[in-house]
Amino acid sequence: MARRPTIADVAQLAGVSRATVSFVLNNRPGVALTTQQRVRSAAEELGWTPSRSARALSTGRTRAVGLVLTREPELIGTDPFYPAFMAGIEAVISETGDGLMLQMSRPGDEVETYHRLAADRRVDGVFLTDLRQDDPRPALVTELGLPAVAVGVVEADTDVPTVNLDDRPAVRSAVRHLIELGHRDIAYVAGPDGFVHARRRRQAWADALAEAGLPCGTSLPGGFTAEGGAQATRALLNRSSPPTAIVYGNDLSATAGMAVAQNAGLRLPEDLSVVGFDDVPLASWTSPPLTTCRANPTSWGRAAAQALVETIEQGTAGDVELDPATLVIRGSTGPVPVRGGR
Amino acid sequence: MARRPTIADVAQLAGVSRATVSFVLNNRPGVALTTQQRVRSAAEELGWTPSRSARALSTGRTRAVGLVLTREPELIGTDPFYPAFMAGIEAVISETGDGLMLQMSRPGDEVETYHRLAADRRVDGVFLTDLRQDDPRPALVTELGLPAVAVGVVEADTDVPTVNLDDRPAVRSAVRHLIELGHRDIAYVAGPDGFVHARRRRQAWADALAEAGLPCGTSLPGGFTAEGGAQATRALLNRSSPPTAIVYGNDLSATAGMAVAQNAGLRLPEDLSVVGFDDVPLASWTSPPLTTCRANPTSWGRAAAQALVETIEQGTAGDVELDPATLVIRGSTGPVPVRGGR
DNA sequence: ACCGCTATTTAAACCGGTTCAAGTCTCCGG
DNA sequence: CCGGAGACTTGAACCGGTTTAAATAGCGGT
């Protein structure tokens, strides 16, 4: 098999210099039309594609962006966010032939991962996802000079452009929806408080209760996992006066919670109303179908990718606020049960 | 901010030539120990890391592998296989500092995607997943000279090393398990026949029935989707004599099927037994918990990555056969209902 | 025929590593 | 004191593009 052609081969075949070929390739003005055609057909004839490595070396751009997944490996398959988010990224970057590099990292190695990413210059920029309270990464990437965009809310002052999708309106709608159904005792099963988005969802639940003039309800940690959601649900149902509705930080714990409640003999939604968050593909196929909150991770990925490209090219980008998440009402929420008493 | 240091800076500081620095970096024999130390401390002092682009250009290796996801975007978040599989890949390649490039491609653009991948030489090799009947890719990558490993079974003759995990034993176990419970009419809801693994799972169901001397059962397409699983289930339950058990091609359609059955007033498993495939995180949290088949996608990813690295470095690698999938019995399967008659 | 000007083209340096062939040094045996 | 064998080092070419400054060409005007 012949060695793959280089720019020199094309130049020779077209009878021009390598510089000219390069100009044509990058369609820079100042090359005669006839020359352009000769170069193009020579390239065509040889099947030439410029070498990415060579380009990367001389331009200093790798034409790839990086996404670091910092999750316990066993939780990775659990969240429908990332696949959809990545699809959004791809849709944008593949238009210019750019690529997406995936790094997985254990929570502890995270800082080191970003250092390596910056040192290698294997990517032109990175996405910061799963932002946490006191997240070191925005400052880190600024210090490293690594272009980045934050996906979500950054709680500190930062130069890193931010692309956000507000979860809270959907959670508030959910709580209001439950209140309209007559619920007064609405509990919450939260994700890890370290995550900004988990805390903001929980806060939205608390705020909605307060706005309605209701006493602040019970919140238990569910860790965004099935097991955690199940445990929290058991704890809530074992109370002397259990809540009549539970809002969960995500669908995974909500589904587990539904199973626990049903095993305890409760009928849903007659005895207990349940709300999730994410609208995973299965949410419409639980029994009863899960009332939940829906964001648009794909559009989030698209917006984040656009912002990152802009940051890479112009040095910065404006913050973006996407359409907020919305409530999807299905069968797991219903009127508050009539209780004996009072 | 100062320009990042190059090998020349290190060489100068250490008082040696660039060649020597390069030798030390790649710990090649033949450099005096004291020189090595001087070079290393010079590199340390300057915080030097070799440029990946430069290395890629001169060595011809990018130190990255590619994974092409050919799925309809809306199905991407649906399958727990990929996240776990990628985690396995990462575990292997990150040991040597290699990276994983993700490409998403629409089913139609697939061949073009591989052409681009090969032309760009942005990756040193690729994984071929979701293998199909008459899949053009094994021949394509061979022709393109792009190192690759096939993840699953390739039905044609090919030089591409194969890493397989047999789904069939688990499906057979499932059918035998149902037969032991007294079921005689066991239907199947299949994934798209175009996928080799979907067809093999279905075949395993058919074989197990035949082995037990039972007549061949009914198989309906479910497309590996929730909606498809639901439709197939409706169709099966509407028959004059519906099956007493249904085996599904994956958990997604199984869960949807369960919902359909329950909505139709059937109790599970008393009136109908259900088996899925994948053991998604939610499978233990449906009501009843889903009996399903479990493979190990992470170990699959690890093995595939090892084989790919070997293929890249030695030109080829041996085929690998992993531990087969196994049956996980939960609450969605039970004794066949006693019917009136006969 | 010559000049100035603009439109094209190109030589050569550069990006930051890798890799041989060819030195330079030391030390040892004769 | 010399030749030669190792043990280390290094100069220089090379990977395949991009880019800038300078060369060349074509053309209307005088």
From TrEMBL, chains A, B:
Pfam families hit by this protein: LacI (PF00356), Peripla_BP_3 (PF13377)
Span of domain HTH lacI-type: 5-59
Gene Ontology MF annotations: DNA binding
Alphabetical list of InterPro entries matching this protein: HTH_LacI (IPR000843), LacI/GalR-like_sensor (IPR046335), Lambda_DNA-bd_dom_sf (IPR010982), Peripla_BP_I (IPR028082)
Keywords tagged on the record: DNA-binding, Transcription, Transcription regulation
This protein's name: LacI family DNA-binding transcriptional regulator
Source organism: Streptomyces gibsoniae
Lineage: Bacteria, Bacillati, Actinomycetota, Actinomycetes, Kitasatosporales
